[in-house]
Amino acid sequence: MQGNDRDGSNRDHCSQLLRFTSLSSKLLKRGNDPYTEASKMEIRWPNLPDELLEQISKRLGLKEFSALGAACTNFFRFYKHQKKLFMQSQPPFVILKTPHAKKSCSFFCLSARQTFRVVLPYFWGKAYVGFSGGYMIMTGGGLLWLVNPFTREQLHIPESPFSDYCISESDQAIHASITGSEDFVIVSISSWSSFLDVYHSRNSRWVNFAFNGGPWRVMDIVVFKGRIYAITDKAEIGVLSLTSPKLTLLELKSSPSLDPDSVKLVGSDDHLLVVSFIPLKNLEVYKIDFSGMEWVKLDTLGDQALFLGKYRKGSALRNPSRWGYNSNCVYYIGYAPPVCHIYSMENRLVSSIRVAAGDPAASKLCCIDWYHPHQFSSPNYVQDE
Predict the structure, then answer these.
(1) Among 93, 83, 53, which residue's Cα sits nearest to residue 323?
(2) pLDDT at 43 over 60
(3) Both 183 and 249 in a single domain?
(4) CA-CA-CA-CA torsion sign (368, 370, 375, 377)
(5) C-alpha span between 177 and 202 (Å, rounded)
(6) 232/371 same-domain check
(7) Per its UniProt entry, which superkingdom is the organism in (predicted)?
(8) Strand 315-318's sheet: what is its strand order?
(9) Is the CB of residue 64 less than 8 Å from the CB of residue 25?
(10) Are both 210 and 301 inside the same structural domain?
């Protein structure tokens, strides 16, 4: 009989906690204190065992789990302990916004066909330039603004390298933490500039990186195995040195001739990939073999899938079937209309998925990027060398 009472109590706590986490995300949007609401619900939060919290967390969405730590000290401890595992279990999302969004953006899960909205401190007057290290990166008003849309952690960087009057959809920035310290770097490329701009938090200033072997333009940048790589419009790959402002080109054999406007650098688990993709026209995937210092063309991705955007960075995920995605194919989003197209490695259109279908604002939404929650649990780390 006591066991039945305990099970009933756990069910009640589970129901109340699910209601609380949903409410917490709304309270946080309005700037209210979730702790006050928790005390009104008269639940003995500190006494809930981790086993029950773990069961409950499996029923939470990304936004609700992020609000879990606001309930009490016990929940915050559990949230910090489980955050990495939870984020790694989450599928990729498409980030959407309307052209005139002021404070919110939306996240759409292809596998679950679900959309949820996130309110940010501010969005109006800002241009989106990338998602990196768990941060949405935006520029505007002479500043660079980084915000985690779920934890609301923010970084404000003075003197944005991007021009407010000449911002392009292909402009981008990446964030990386310095191994063994609390410092970080931000690297940006702009369509109107021939420079790589690097901000180091230790010095709190931007530095223009020189190019050895130019003139040429950097088309994409990526963090891979503790180093920052760049690819030029001549399909040359270089590595950045953070201690001296220069980009050193690698001497690689079997370099292909690629369309510079379609090239993306993609860091997978094991390989640095170069992808040249024009829907229905051209799909070439290469890995950089560092042991032989050469380009190697790939005809298959194996158990990986590529997630690409027209203007944004690409990514590769292993075993995407755990979230209902297909392996050995390309998931591609344009800007508008909000549609995700799936292509085979032969560059044939397999299927198309309407993004945010059923959303009242769907006709006004634009796809701006992919969001991979696992990147929040495993931020980019680079060596300060």
Answers:
(1) 93
(2) no
(3) yes
(4) positive
(5) 11
(6) yes
(7) Eukaryota
(8) 315-318, 304-309, 329-333, 339-344, 349-354
(9) yes
(10) yes
What are 66-81's pLDDT values in tens digits?
Answer: 777 766 777 778 877 8
Max alpha carbon distance in the chain (Å)? 80
pLDDT at 212 over 60: no
Please name the amino acid found at residue 264: K
Tokens at residue 158, please?
């003075």
pLDDT recorded at residue 50: 78
What range does the domain containing 37 cover? Answer: 2-88
Tokens of 361: 């604002």
Residue 296 · residue 346 · CB < 8 Å:
no
Task: Tell whether 68 and 98 lie within a shared domain.
Answer: no
Domain count of the fold of the chain? 2
DSSP state of 25: H
Whether 15 and 139 share a structural domain: no
Rounded distance between C-alpha atoms, residue 62 and residue 87, angstroms: 8
β-pair partners for 200: 185, 205
Q: Residues 11-23: pLDDT tens digits?
A: 555 555 555 555 4
Among residues 223, 222, 295, 291, the alpha carbon closest in space to that of 252 is found at 295
pTM: 0.84
